[in-house]
Amino acid sequence: MYDIAIIGAGPAGASAALFAAKAGKKTLLVDNDKSMTKRAWIENHYGVAEITGPDMVDIGKKQATKFGAELVTATVTNVVKKEQGFTVETEEQGSFEAAHVILATGALTALAEAIGVATTEGKEPRIKTVFQTDASGKTTIPGIWAAGTCAGVSVHSIITAGDGAKVAINVISEINGERYVDHDVLKTN
Ligand SMILES: Cc1cc2nc3c(=O)[nH]c(=O)nc-3n(C[C@H](O)[C@H](O)[C@H](O)COP(=O)(O)OP(=O)(O)OC[C@H]3O[C@@H](n4cnc5c(N)ncnc54)[C@H](O)[C@@H]3O)c2cc1C
User: Fold this and answer.
1) Domain spanning 2-176: which CATH class is it, in words?
2) By the 8 A CB rule, do 118 and 132 touch?
3) CA nearest neighbour of 56 among 160, 184, 140, 177
4) Average pLDDT, the chain
5) DSSP secondary structure of 67-98
6) Atom 33, ligand 1: which residue's CA is nearest?
7) Would you tell me how many other CB atoms lie within 10 Å of the CB of residue 50?
8) How far apart are CA 173 and CA 152, in angstroms?
9) How far is CA 144 from CA 6, 7, 45, 63, in A?
10) What is the pLDDT of residues 168-184, one digit of tens each?
11) What distance in Å separates the CA atoms of residue 35 and residue 103, rounded to the nearest whole number?
12) pLDDT reported for residue 189
């Protein structure tokens, strides 16, 4: 049983996976390589002078797996509520059990119908439908969260990555029963 399964490894999902895995949570990251970010050339991401979208996505996945997130290439077809947690079903790689699920599927929200989470109209250009969430990232099914473009935030890499981090921190905090922060300190002589 994974503590947290994240669907989508674009900036939102990989950022969530990096925080979850670095916090010591058993983390699954499932992605089917359809990130819109792979079409971008990015010069507006704070702290990064310029980067291609494919490089950003590749580095994000490597950061997440470096801390122990398990990356699986597959299309998620459904997330089914069990007595304890959820079963994440995939087309190609079977199914996985997880206590919490974070949806980070970018512009793709077709999964909503199978899962049964509520959606609402997207406000961002070209984003027609998003998962309905509260301010913490909770969807209408307890234990299923959403982050990034699919949760309706502004469609920019720094904001979707930040939202993935925010939602992961909220999930980690809920699991731990207290607010969680991840601060590494610069070593000086
Ligand atoms: C042409 C273009 C140029 C852009 N230029 C910029 C720019 O200059 N600056 C900027 O800040 N932003 C730019 N953006 C926007 C940026 O890409 C997005 O704001 C943001 O990074 C999206 O992140 P995300 O993680 O929400 O979605 P995505 O990056 O789309 O990631 C979603 C992931 O979910 C996966 N997924 C979806 N459904 C499933 C499923 N059922 N099973 C498994 N995996 C699934 C997809 O394969 C994908 O990898 C640009 C976008 C485009 C299209």
Assistant:
1) alpha beta
2) yes
3) 160
4) 98
5) TTPEEEE--EEEEEE-SSSEEEEESSS-EEEE
6) 8
7) 10
8) 22
9) 10, 11, 28, 23
10) 999 999 999 999 999 99
11) 14
12) 79
CA–CA distance, 73 with 96 (Å, rounded to integer):
13
Amino acid found at 76:
V
Task: Sort strands 70-73 and 51-52 into parallel, antiparallel or unpaired.
Answer: unpaired
Q: Give tens-digit pLDDT for 98-141.
A: 999 999 999 999 999 999 999 999 999 999 999 999 999 999 99
Sequence-ordered alpha helix ranges (H) in 73-189: 111-115, 157-176
Q: Which residues contact ligand 1 via a Cβ below 6 A?
A: 7-13, 30-37, 39-40, 42, 44, 75-76, 104-108, 111, 148-149, 155-158, 160
Q: What confidence tens digit (pLDDT) does each residue in 7-24 have?
A: 999 999 999 999 999 999
In ligand 1, which atom is closest to the CA atom of 12? 25
Q: What is the pTM of this model?
A: 0.98
Tell me what the mean pLDDT of segment 74-99 comes to. Answer: 97
Substitution candidate for ligand 1 out of 45, 117, 157, 167 with most atoms within 8 A of CB: 157
What is the whole-number distance in angstroms between the Cα of residue 123 and the centre of ligand 1?
16
Number of other residues whose CB lies within 10 A of the CB of residue 125? 6
